[in-house]
Inverse folding.
């Protein structure tokens, strides 16, 4: 019983971080038809920055958070406007390779600046205690963090579905030329999507780092975003949340019941099955099957 | 009143290729001007440069008394200069009526706050837009298709839907990119009637890239011919005795272009039929 509970809770909390990362990737895919391979770095760099500034410079959390979000926004805006905007009209794989190259550069920078050090992020307002549920001890702070992550994901989904900005984002994603004839500033929507995606990844990374440890192995977590993205559907915002949660659960269940050496096997087998049955993912649009 | 469209010294380059070279002309208020010329002459590029889709390398564009150099497409659209596309931009999954109603977004944006705070006024505005769009559909003999899924329409009708979309809100200037390519005889006649009605009722200034000389003859007052990005002819339609040869004549300056304009027009309308 307590193993099952631990499994569910573990999947839920990993899924929270994954959901935020995948959500960003969905926003980017909807806007610019690109997969961002540097998205894991957009998660890792701000987490590292907050950890480093907190530990080494005694910076208050809120200031460190703000600065880290500014850094990731700048990186995201740079990648879009200096690199990806130049690849408009080129074959689909060129922007993807460009993000891969950018990821390699960031990898090098992280190695030089942080030298695979480990940091712990402490969020001051987070409650310290823990409580027992049927013999399982759960930290209150971790619950708050996971709740925050899912809440943020749902908030973004609601914004995209029900606000004017969201309507513009969806219009630009559907037909950018037509949207521009509707008076919508296409470039601003693209840039906005990239920045929001970067900030979501950063928040996911910082949330994860506050309950776990900030280390380069967080990039492995980011790579799980790809199966989650496939599972939920490339272009579906609710799918991002569902996909993140599902992959979190699969991971957690595999480590608990089968053994963590089987993690890639179970995760990717399930994705393979989903792709065979529903190539567009659980909640994706039918047309998006080309990649 | 200055000319609603004034282009001077306009040049556009695509990585060393000069698509437009020092093009200049003016269109007077309420006038309809056709742009003819062989494929690759820079006709679409000219429209793209006017409405901010491509950045010119040199020259300037004045629209409705405002210098629009450096403006982006959405700013030009908000300024009252609408355009249509050679390959129609329609949302296949939506109804014909809703596709036309998209044209209303330039003037009335979709916002949630008025929907919540002033629901009746918003509903009335939407109803007005619906009426306007239904009337437009009626004008193009598409009233019966209003609630059909756009994907089910033939190519020529999709083009009409795209044109009707651009007519919502009565634009002061309308840029049309090969409106009749891929259209059959019947749709072409509907198009001619529609454009004539637009001129008569809204006084819209038209700039039409066109291959079909019957459309040019019926709708346009003036015609300019482009070849290899250069303006070759600027004349009143009534003064040109052989319109079909106008595109040819301009092409004849370059020995490399051997396809007569008429043939290339046909070739183009065929290819555009194949990729709706």
């Amino acid at each position: 019983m307590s193993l099952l509970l631990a499994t569910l809770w573990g999947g839920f909390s990993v899924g929270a971080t994954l959901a935020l990362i995948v959500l960003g990737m969905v926003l980017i895919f909807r806007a610019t038809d690109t997969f961002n391979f540097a998205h894991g770095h957009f998660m890792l760099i701000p987490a590292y920055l907050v950890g480093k500034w907190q530990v080494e410079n005694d910076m208050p959390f809120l200031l460190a958070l703000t600065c880290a979000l500014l850094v990731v926004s700048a990186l995201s805006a740079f990648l879009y406007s200096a690199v990806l905007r130049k690849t408009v009209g080129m074959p689909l794989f060129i922007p993807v390779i460009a993000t891969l190259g950018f990821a390699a550069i960031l990898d090098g920078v992280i190695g030089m600046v942080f030298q695979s050090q480990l940091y712990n992020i402490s969020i001051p307002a987070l409650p310290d205690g823990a409580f027992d549920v049927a013999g399982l001890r759960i930290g209150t702070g971790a619950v708050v963090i996971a709740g925050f992550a899912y809440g943020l994901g749902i908030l973004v989904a609601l914004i995209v579905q029900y606000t004017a900005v969201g309507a513009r984002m969806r219009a630009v994603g559907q037909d950018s030329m037509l949207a521009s004839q509707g008076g919508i500033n296409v470039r601003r929507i693209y840039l906005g999507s990239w920045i929001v995606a970067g900030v979501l990844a950063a928040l996911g990374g910082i949330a994860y780092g506050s309950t776990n440890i900030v280390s380069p192995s967080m990039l492995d977590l980011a790579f799980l975003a790809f199966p989650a993205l496939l599972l939920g559907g490339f272009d579906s915002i609710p799918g991002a949340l569902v996909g993140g949660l599902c992959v979190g659960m699969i991971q957690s269940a595999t480590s608990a019941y089968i053994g963590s050496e089987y993690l890639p096997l179970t995760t990717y087998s399930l994705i393979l099955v989903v792709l065979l049955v529903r190539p567009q993912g659980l909640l994706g649009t039918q047309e998006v099957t080309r990649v | 009143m200055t000319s609603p469209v004034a282009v001077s010294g306009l040049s556009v380059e695509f990585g060393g290729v000069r698509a437009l070279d020092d093009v200049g002309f003016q269109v007077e208020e309420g006038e309809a001007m056709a742009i003819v010329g062989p494929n690759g002459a820079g006709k679409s590029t000219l429209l793209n440069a006017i409405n901010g889709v491509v950045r010119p390398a040199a020259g300037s564009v004045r629209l409705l008394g405002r210098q629009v150099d450096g403006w982006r497409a959405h700013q030009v659209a908000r300024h009252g200069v609408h355009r249509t596309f050679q390959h129609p931009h329609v949302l296949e999954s939506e109804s014909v009526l809703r596709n036309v109603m998209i044209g209303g977004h330039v003037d009335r944006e979709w916002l949630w706050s008025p929907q919540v705070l002033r629901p009746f006024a918003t509903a009335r505005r939407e109803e007005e837009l619906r009426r306007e769009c239904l009337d437009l559909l009626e004008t193009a003999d598409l009233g019966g298709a209003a609630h059909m899924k756009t994907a089910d329409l033939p190519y020529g009708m999709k083009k009409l839907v795209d044109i009707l979309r651009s007519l919502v809100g009565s634009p002061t200037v309308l840029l049309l990119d090969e409106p009749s390519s891929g259209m059959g005889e019947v749709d072409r006649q509907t198009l001619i009637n529609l454009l004539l009605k637009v001129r008569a009722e809204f006084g819209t200034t038209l700039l039409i890239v066109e291959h079909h000389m019957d459309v040019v003859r019926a709708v346009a007052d003036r015609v300019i011919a482009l070849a290899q990005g250069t303006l070759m002819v600027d004349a009143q339609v009534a003064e040109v005795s052989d319109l079909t040869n106008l595109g040819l004549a301009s092409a004849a300056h370059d020995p490399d272009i051997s396809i007569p304009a008429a043939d290339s027009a046909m070739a183009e309308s065929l290819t555009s039929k194949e990729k709706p």
Summary: The CA atoms of residues 3 and 257 of chain A lie 9 Å apart. Chain A has one domain: 2-277.
